[in-house]
Design goal:
Blueprint lengths: L1 H13 L13 H7 L12 H13 L5 H25 L5 H13 L1 H5 L7 H21 L2 H15 L9 H10 L7 H15 L4 H7 L12 H9 L16 H37 L1 H21 L6 H9 L1 H30 L3 H34 L3 H11 L6 E3 L3 H12 L8 E3 L6 H10 L14 H5 L6 E3 L7 E5 L2 E5 L2 H22 L7 H4 L2 H23 L3 H10 L1 H4 L3 H13 L5 H11 L9 H11 L3 H13 L3
Parallel strand pairs: 1-2, 1-3
Antiparallel strand pairs: 3-5, 4-5
Length: about 650
């Protein structure tokens, strides 16, 4: 009881008081939108979360939508640690080590971050924790009621996140190790009923699909669409994204990255304590040791086959979230490690001395080490978490896109950040409902039919020729925009988007207006504060800055072609402090000042950053070579830079 109370108090100060006020990156804004519009998120749809989330959003009299959906994550993070306390109490008598371990778990950065923003992981962790608790409780008591509850939460797992499947081999080991269930018709039928009850939330999917929810990728009311939703057929059941292909080198990098994250989040001291926990479990509770090892190997296998491409900040942020399942297992082992080290200290101190002062000093020192570990994790994570709470960058990005569009424009988005954040702006914030978003999955029969029904004025060609959407709609509406060129024709930068014209003659009519508007966007409208060290560790935030830098580089090229050299200089100087770590900004900056034949301390810094990048485009080496010839005239410098250029030709 005391452990639970103290966990709640700690949770209030760390989670409840830090709920995200604005949309967050990744697919968080999509989760928030589906939880507020009776929608279905991307496959597998997360029907359990969307059902409970929509109820919470509708009945909660406090907070805005983003805070309500963040509160959903926070409350299930709390319930997770309470269940973990129950699991550990089955084996560990000294409750202080359970409390300290779970407080430490709450301070781990990915756990904390995805417990204060709208996401699916806290509920998924709660379900996995319940599965582990009830199967271990069944193993201890042999009471069938715990077996049925385990099956119920297994069914719920299907209704939430499929990563729980990686725990099934461990569950089977526990079930068939010693337990002998005498199967009969009654037990079989009850088992089927409890699994079915857990699966029932999936009925939410066809129901809201039938009621024409604005978010329904797979047409869940059809049998085929329902099955595709459950199996994540559009993405690949256990792959990171659609179109991912096996790549052993990348998959091995995933494995290495997993261990790098563990060292960063759990710290070397935490890892040492986990090793002690494994030793204790191997000696004293072998079946639990085996269960944990099987579960860890299952998760590592998932990280391997999911094949995240970790070359960019967006994919790094996506990968980081899935570590919370591994940390769930590691923190339980950590708890055993703390108890075991305490036991070792007590036994050995008694052998070495009978002086209470020495005994007390050693044990207090051990508690102090754990306390330092927790405080270090708390302060390190808190420095980043506090930047998330009221960070408007993600919302500003979507608003900037919508604000740059004339009334009744057509907008086609390809990137997850663009799609999810603009969708949230329109459906939650009711921003610019006049802008027609053309779905990125318009090629699907169901999506096309649904879009045509709600937007009869938009002309849609056959599936085989969807690239002509801008062209055939231009005579009726010449405001067609996208976050990247998607067809033939003339595409010009328009702030954070691109504007379509069918030919160069049509573009010339609007040329001055477009040039002036781009100058306005980048010299006055858009502003970015420099990212702090803590903010840079938020991968999705860094990705938004990357988007700004990429689009700005296109705008700079466009403005240079149109003779707006002075404005380009102003733009580069304006964003120097906020974007100088972004690759495309560095290229634009170095190229411009090389063409201007200006060598400064800052151009040298940018040159050095580019030269030291492990990966860059082969064509961009030309900028480095030109700058070397202009500004690095000594033989030593020239040889050094040429050597650096040779090393990176990817």
């Amino acid at each position: 009881m005391l452990t639970g109370t103290l966990l709640v108090i700690f949770w209030i100060f760390t989670y409840l008081l830090n709920l995200s006020v604005y949309p967050f990156g990744g697919d968080s804004s999509e989760i928030a939108t589906s939880m507020a519009t009776w929608g279905l998120s991307h496959p597998p749809g997360y029907p359990l979360q969307n059902l409970l989330g929509n109820i919470l959003v509708k009945i909660a009299p406090f907070f805005n939508v983003y805070q309500k959906t963040s509160f959903f994550s926070a409350i299930f993070t709390l319930l997770t640690v309470i269940i973990l306390a129950s699991i550990l109490s089955l084996f560990i008598k000294r409750k202080q080590f359970i409390l300290l371990s779970l407080i430490y778990f709450l301070t781990l950065f990915p756990v904390w971050l995805y417990g204060i923003v709208p996401e699916v992981f806290s509920l998924a962790l709660f379900i996995v924790s319940c599965q582990i608790y009830y199967i271990l409780k069944f193993e201890k008591t042999k009471l069938l009621k715990y077996f049925y509850l385990f099956l119920f939460f297994t069914g719920l797992g299907v209704s939430q996140h499929h990563v729980f499947i990686m725990f099934i081999p461990g569950y089977l080991y526990i079930l068939f190790r010693k337990i002998k269930i005498k199967l009969n018709l009654s037990i079989f039928l009850k088992s089927a009923v409890f699994i079915f009850l857990g699966f029932l939330p999936y009925l939410y999917a066809p129901i809201v699909s039938y009621l024409n929810t604005p978010m329904d990728i797979e047409n869940a009311k059809s049998i085929d669409g329902f099955i595709r939703l459950i199996l994540r057929s559009s993405y690949g059941t256990f792959t990171a994204y659609s179109g991912a292909t096996p790549n052993i080198a990348n998959q091995l990098i995933n494995m290495l990255s997993t261990f790098v994250f563990i060292i960063k989040d759990i710290k070397p001291l935490g890892i040492i304590i986990i090793i002690f926990g494994l030793v204790y479990l191997y000696k004293k509770i072998r079946h639990l040791f085996t269960f944990f090892i099987i579960s860890i190997l299952g998760l590592l296998y998932f990280y391997f086959i999911s094949n995240f491409n970790l070359s960019g900040s967006f994919s790094m942020g996506t990968f980081e979230r899935f570590l919370v399942f591994l940390y769930l297992i590691l923190i339980m082992i950590f708890a055993f490690g703390t108890a075991y080290i305490y036991e070792i200290l007590v036994i050995n101190i008694k052998k070495l001395t009978d002086k209470n002062f020495i005994r007390t000093s050693v044990l207090v020192s051990f508690y102090f080490l754990i306390f330092i570990l927790i405080i270090n994790s708390l302060l390190t994570s808190q420095a980043t978490i506090k930047t998330v709470v009221k960070n408007k960058i993600f919302q500003n990005y979507s608003y900037s896109i919508l604000n740059s569009l004339p009334k009744n424009s057509y907008l086609f988005l390809n990137s997850d950040h663009g799609i999810f954040l603009v969708q949230a702006a329109q459906l939650i914030d009711k921003k610019r409902p006049d802008v027609v978003r053309i779905p990125s999955l318009i090629a699907r029969d169901y999506t096309m039919a649904k879009f045509k029904k709600s937007n009869p004025k938009v002309l849609i060609p056959t599936k085989e020729d969807l690239s002509k959407i801008p062209e055939i709609n231009y005579p009726k509406n010449n405001y067609f925009y996208s976050d990247k060129p998607i067809s033939k024709g003339v595409w010009t930068p328009n702030g954070l988007t691109w504007r379509y014209f069918p030919n160069i003659e049509e573009y010339r009519i609007y040329e001055k207006e477009i040039v002036d508007s781009n100058v306005e966007y980048w010299t006055k409208t858009y502003s970015l504060s420099p990212l702090s060290r803590s903010e840079k560790s938020i991968f999705f935030l860094d990705h938004i800055y990357e988007i700004y830098a990429n689009q700005m580089s296109f705008a700079i090229d466009f403005l240079l072609v149109n003779g707006r050299k002075t404005e380009v200089r102003n733009i580069l100087d304006r964003f120097l402090s906020s974007l100088d770590s972004q690759y495309s900004y560095q290229i634009s900056y170095l190229n411009f000042y090389t063409l201007e034949k200006q060598c400064t301390k800052k151009t040298d810094e940018i040159f050095s950053k580019l030269s030291n990048r492990p990966i860059r485009k082969k064509s961009d080496n030309n900028y480095l070579i030109r700058y070397t010839k202009l500004c690095k005239t000594t033989p030593a410098n020239t040889n050094l830079q040429n050597k650096g250029i040779k090393q990176t030709t990817q």
